[in-house]
Amino acid sequence: MQSEQTYKFNVKMSCSGCSGAVSRVLEKAKVDGVTEYTVDLPTQEVVVKGTLPYDDVLARIKKTGKEVISGQIVNIRQPLSLPFNMPIAKPLSQGFKLVTHPHVRFARPFHASAGRHDLIAAPDPVSHMRPIIYDDPPSQLPAPLLRHPYSLSEFRSEAQDDTGDHDLQFRLLRQQLDSLHQNFWLDSNTRFYAARDAVLASLPSTSTTRDKEEALSTFYQQWVMQEKNWTDNYTREWRNRNIQLITLSARVEYHKFKCRLADLFQKST
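-> structure tokens emitted (269 positions)
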């Protein structure tokens, strides 16, 4: 079932009879998913809340014979918060493909392990992000620490391996960053497509291609301005997490490099 949405229409109503006709069709629509509505004659504004799709609500208002000048989906956006849930991964048969890990060729002079491969699927149809299953080697943390329910910084012991600690933090942060991208663009594009379709649906049936292009041009400009703060916040969050990810990655590779050099010197002696 579709989640509850709020729609706002600018309807041409000249008298109480016009507003009454709109109110009656919306009252009847309550059995199909409309939960509440307001019809304001002075402002020519109709606000509808419910699970009924936008196109259905628009069609019912138009059946009264009143001209719908414009319509839009009003979105109440929630702030981004952790944890971000990862999208459900598809099986290999549903679109994932093997991609050679880009760092394998640099690791081979110091390590003789087999090459690793990540699984990358086709872009999500809405967010356009590519889901990834990372082919990471087993963590170097001891098994009891991998199952520990608390954060990595608690109950540390001197014997705990810093390399495994940083490596696990790196994987967790990378997963959260992938989820940040997926959730942001899924939300943004879902609202964008719905708002764009609402603009097109509000145009008269006699609209020409040029009329539609002009309406969409205005819509695109308004959308960019409307989403600016939301997009700026996402960009800042993305930048901060990338800095953390790069720092952790550098620490992991530095510790691994020291271990490989130590192994080489130990074998040479």
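The helical segments are 16-28, 54-62, 104-107, 143-146, 162-202, 209-268.
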